[in-house]
Amino acid sequence: MKKIILVLFCAAALWGFGDGAIYWAPHGCDNGKATAAKHGSHGKGESAMFALMNQEGNASAHLILPDLSEKPLTFKAATVNLPKPSMGGYYAMVAEGNEMNMTYSAVRYLSLQGRPAKVSPTKLTALPKTDLEIIPDPLHREHDRYTASKSYRFLLHFKGKPLINTTVTLETHDTPVQTYTSDKTGAFLITLPNDFKNVKVGRSENKPSEFLLSTQYRFGEHLYKSTLTMPYSLNPNDFWQSQSYGAITIFIGFLVGLVFYRRIKKGAKNG
């Protein structure tokens, strides 16, 4: 019962975000922003709960481990509990479902701590996970994170091949929907918005937000829909760091100017 209430609460808090799209979201919500753990995962090795938002009909889910093996995930009130990670590295959480003449899918990548798998995350992203798939290119490093005001490249594939001239939408909680079109290689570039509010000094004092990429493609009479959700953090350079760097630059400039002034003044006296 608690899980059902939690899912309903999250759905209400995220109203307007991802309307009509099937996507993964962390189980915790805070004023319309889904909370996410450090580096986009529960990185200390504990289990985590995620909800499949807007789920319709029957859906199945599985977890792809860093070594590319798979584990099934079981839904309880539209949520799944991830098992304690047996190895460290990137995981892919995949949900798929079918309705009449439509297939939908949702993907989310997680970085979890544990025994190193010694497998490059490029093998995980290169592995076809759904018929229609949005792929990070590359996936950010395990100790990095998606950051506001920065640009990132993604690939759009259909059945393992690049999908060109296809629209992809980007949604966040506080910025209007933006649209992109895949190029002749199936690639597109997005810039994450700086839409954080009530910012406090210190990255750890500000919870990450979520971005949602969604697309659809019709093949014959069949419609495919797919999403990718990931957390992103604020960019310190947009806030306190830029101010600090500016003050330091001014101070250094003042010192340099003072040194030159004294040299010129001393030279004038000696002349």
List SSEs in N-to-C order: HEEEEEEEEEHEEEEEEEEEH
Ends apart, CA distance between termini: 89 Å
CATH homolog superfamily of the largest domain: Immunoglobulins
Overall mean pLDDT stands at 81
Radius of gyration: 23 Å
Describe the fold and architecture:
- The protein is of the alpha+beta class and 271 residues long.
- It folds into two domains: 2-238, Immunoglobulins (Immunoglobulin-like, Sandwich), CATH 2.60.40; 241-271.
- The chain has helices at 2-13, 121-126, 240-270; strands at 23-26, 29-30, 33-34, 49-53, 59-64, 70-73, 79-81, 89-99, 102-112, 132-136, 146-147, 151-158, 161-162, 167-171, 178-181, 187-191, 209-219, 222-233.
- Strands 5, 6, 8, 9, 11, 14, 15, 17 and 18 form a nine-stranded mixed beta sheet that branches. Strands 10, 12, 13 and 16 form a four-stranded antiparallel beta sheet that branches.
- A hairpin with a 2-residue loop joins strand 17 and strand 18 (222-233).
- The radius of gyration is 23 Å and the shape is globular.
- It starts with a helix and ends with a helix.
- Residues 1-9, 11-15, 30-46 and 243-251 have low confidence and may be disordered.
List keywords for this structure.
single chain, 3 helices, 271 residues, Immunoglobulin-like, globular, alpha+beta
Summarize the structure.
The protein is α+β, with helices and mostly antiparallel strands and about 270 residues long. The protein has 3 helices and 18 strands.
